């Protein structure tokens, strides 16, 4: 299953002093793409508790940097469902430049009941 795509161009504020994308900035892009993906499914992250009776908790994340991204590069962050369990799910992120895979990221989320924080089925 694929989801939302986020297209953007790197700015100087995304990069370190030598013009290479700062490693932590990738998490901002992944979060933005994830929020858009949820919204495309009719889900607003901040309203999950009221609307669905559950909350999601980030339990792990990571990124593997395969190629250098530099200031003014045009990138795309694609969301893909990477794993689905009974009480958790994993979202993958493929960040590309002109079809070349630059970074592969992932975030895992646990689903919890909003009222008592026990495991909820995803």
Number of E strands: 5
Query: Could you tell me the mean pLDDT?
Result: 89
Contiguous helical run count: 2
What string gives the helices and strands in order?
EHHEEEE
Q: What proportion of the residues is helical, as a percent range?
A: 10-25%
What amount of the residues lies in strands?
over 45%
Determine the structural class based on helices, strands and strand pairing. alpha+beta
Low-confidence parts lasting 5 or more residues at pLDDT below 50?
Answer: none
Calculate Rg over CA atoms: 16 Å
What is the approximate shape? Answer: elongated
Strand order of the largest sheet: 1-3-4-5-2
- Main β sheet profile: 5 strands, antiparallel
Give the N-to-C terminal Cα separation.
Answer: 16 Å
Describe the structure.
This protein has two helices and five strands; from the N terminus they run E-H-H-E-E-E-E. It has 122 residues and is an alpha+beta fold. Strands 1-3-4-5-2 form a five-stranded antiparallel sheet. Strand 3 and strand 4 form a beta hairpin.
Relevant terms:
alpha+beta; 122 residues; 5 strands; elongated; 17% helix; 45% strand; 5-stranded antiparallel β-sheet; single chain
Provide a quick synopsis of the model.
The chain is of the alpha+beta class. Helix content is 17%, strand content 45%.
Secondary-structure topology with pairs:
Layout: E1 2-9, H1 25-40, H2 48-52, E2 54-65, E3 74-84, E4 88-97, E5 100-113
Antiparallel strand pairs: 1-3, 2-5, 3-4, 4-5
